[in-house]
Amino acid sequence: MRILDRYILKSIIFTFIGTVVTFAFLFILIDMFGNLQDFISKSVSIPVIIKYYISFLPSIIVQTSTMACLISVLFTYSSLNANNEIIAIRASGLNFWQITRPALVFALFISALVFLVNEKFVPQSSMINQDIRDTEIKVIPSQKGKGKPVIRNLTFYGLKNRLYFIDTFNPNTNELNGITIIGHDNHQNLVQKIVALKGKWTGIAWKFYNCQITQYNGAMPNSPGRMLISAEKLMDIREAPKDFVKQRMEVSAMNLKQLHDYIKRFSGSGAIKTINNLRVDLQQKITFPLRNFIIVLIGLPFALMTVGKRKAMTFTSIAIALVIGFLYYVSDAVGLALAKGGTLLPWQGAWLTPILFTLSALIIIFRNF
Predict the structure, then answer these.
(1) In terms of domains, do 229 and 294 share one?
(2) Cα(146)–Cα(357) distance, rounded to whole angstroms?
(3) Full-model pTM
(4) Mean predicted confidence (pLDDT) in 228-246
(5) Residue 193 sits in which domain range?
């Protein structure tokens, strides 16, 4: 590695670490003040609080890495520019790609790191964080230490084209209360409605109590057919208790394999819009780490510009690049919204912004350097 590369990379790394630490400190400080009353009233121990905030770290790294990477690169190159070092470097015959190589390699490394953290650590840490929150921080004092918290207002699409509405699910006893299940055919026509007061897992199947099953004609959804009322009935429901627990995991906390398996599992549910949204989220998980590299790529030309007063350009280039970073987030959100709305295909919505900004960055670079 050249001396120049080491010199630039050292500044970028130290600034990046400082920025991430600052973001993490501010996040923890704000969250701590928000939960201070719960910590005191629930008598949460110091080790539990430490574990709770350590579980936040993978998510903080993933969410703040883009801006931290951009700020560290822009700060380093703008400082070189302000001190006339960029002029000296360019006078030695180095082109844009040779000058920015340390930053681009660093951005690629951060993209790979974000992908790794998002895949290996975020899902597990999110579950730990949620478990501590439910069992130690937000739990009712009388229920503390009595197992997993009751899941309320559970709604999800299941197998056999069924939509589940569950008032409460107790994962400790595997009991359901307030059950409503809506069944559809492949054309989204109502074919069955199941209402039950209570459900319990027998170890093999679900047994519903005070159960009412209404069959509908798929071609005439407003015309109910025969109705069956049972005090007790074993149900043909493939979802086990562990599947109900998994519904709590947010898409943002799943890794690629978990989300792919989730989509595959429920792809036959008939919930076309929901499955499309999940496919958009899957594509976005692939493109998300790339934004570290792309935003740095489009921000670097502004940090190297030497037009006008160089010290003024330090602040101007940073401001312009930060605006570009904001526009990236907005453009990405619009693309994802269009894909979830059905205007674009899932891969088009997720890849629209990365491709657009990469092309824009290359055009700016080749026109100015």
Answers:
(1) no
(2) 52
(3) 0.74
(4) 85
(5) 160-237
